[in-house]
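B., you asked whether I could sanity-check this one before it goes into the benchmark set. Here's the sequence:
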Amino acid sequence: MKFAVASSLLLAGLAAAAPLTEKRMARRAAGSRRSNPAYVPGAFGTELLNITQSTREVEYSENWAGAVLVGTGYTAVSAEFTVPTPSAVGLGIGQFCAAAWVGLDGDTCDTSILQTGVDFCIDDGDVSYDAWYEWYPDYAYDFSGITIQAGDVIKISVVADSKASGVATVENVSRGKTVTHTFLAESDELCEWNAEWIVEDFEEGSSLVNFADFGTVTFTDCEATKDDDTVDTSGAVIMDIEQDETVLTSVTASGSTVIVNILSMSHQQPKVPVRQKASKIENGMHREFVLAAVQFHKLPGTYK
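And here's what the prediction gave me:
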């Protein structure tokens, strides 16, 4: 019996650390995996969400769930989280993923993002984890030399040394391993207007991946540097993912903690807009979207 239990645990550990499938390796090698700015629900790739003057308790995005600080002078952001075990949704056929990351810019400044984080995927039963770094609009690149499994405590941080240079760091606290990447003379400069803690439905092969059921991702020790002072999430705008008129996540933030929950299929909320009015000011610096209040009613929902 002890041998059987040990064998089961060993197999579970091997599954958690399984390498990428050949299909996914080929996609990443081709430079097709990318995190993006937040998009308006139902408008991925066409209409960016901008929360410059948000007065709502929650904003909705096609691809971002988490907390976003809006202002000026943000030059660093960091947090810790425990790696979840992803699950497939529905019939469970194919690849399902999500990514937990921290970043600078990407909302009120949508021309660039300095970010780093971890992908967690399940592909036909095979689970994989990948640490990566990215200076959007370039694609994400995987770190080498770091192993990640479910239950590991990960610390992630980015620091902007200037608007065109910075450092991305992923530390596996549980295993005592740290990897870093230094960006130099990037052509798409930061604005330093946002700091964020995000779980994302990221892009692979020019479309969003199937969003995995990750349970809960809890970012702790959330800190950002603003004008050389250390701040927490106070005043951050909460963002939830809405796809196909259904809210898929529930986010809360308080002090140095951001909690991102995936809603179970029975608690996902079809969203009924009362009124929506959008206005744009496009001058290369700024976009504004004013969205009206919304109502909710709870009905059984499914991923699509």
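One thing to flag: The longest helix spans residues 2-16. Otherwise nothing jumped out at me.
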